[in-house]
Amino acid sequence: MDGHDKEFKFPAAIYNLDDLRDLGAKAKMCPYFLARHFLTHSNIIVYSYSYIIDPKIANLVSAELQSDCVVVFDECHNIDNACIEAMSLNINSKSLEMASQALKRLEDLVKAEKQSGSQRLKAEYTRLVQGL
């Protein structure tokens, strides 16, 4: 919003897309960024449930909502399917095999680091004892 967000004060009201476009034109601000600014200052928001349920979208769009903001979901007749889909993960045998190989490599690295660390610790101990 290139500095305008601190200057621009909007009256408390109910805004739709046309209102945001008009306000954006008056304030010389992009309506999208104006709407994003409104999200951080709004008490009640009506928008699609996907903006909160889907983690990929929620992290971008809904992360800055006020903690006491009331969100009213629009068009939520498919919300159960959206929740299942947003929180589901498809795993195939190739993915499991690759994950297993990665875990084996990690286990080998941890063992090697433990061995190396143990050797360094013993060498340091020997140097300390010789120094006494």
Give the number of helices.
7
Describe the biggest sheet?
2 strands, parallel
**Which spans of ≥5 residues are poorly predicted at pLDDT below 50?**
1-5
The best one-word shape is elongated
Which structural class matches the secondary elements? mainly alpha
Number of strands: 2
**Rg calc:** 27 Å
| β-strand amount | 5-15%
- Tally the structural domains: 2
**Mean pLDDT across residues:** 83
Distance between the termini: 66 Å
Helix content: 55-70%
Strand ordering within the main sheet:
1-2
H/E series? HHHEHHEHH
For the structure shown, list the relevant keywords.
mainly alpha, 8% strand, 132 residues, two-stranded parallel ribbon, 2 domains, single chain, 7 helices
How would you describe the overall organization of this protein?
It is built from seven helices and two strands, in the order αααβααβαα. It folds into two domains: 4-86, no CATH class; 91-132. It has a two-stranded parallel ribbon with strand order 1-2. The protein starts with a helix and ends with a helix. The radius of gyration is 27 Å and the shape is elongated. The longest helix has 39 residues, at 93-131. It has 132 residues and is mainly alpha-helical. α2 (17-27) packs across α3 (31-39).
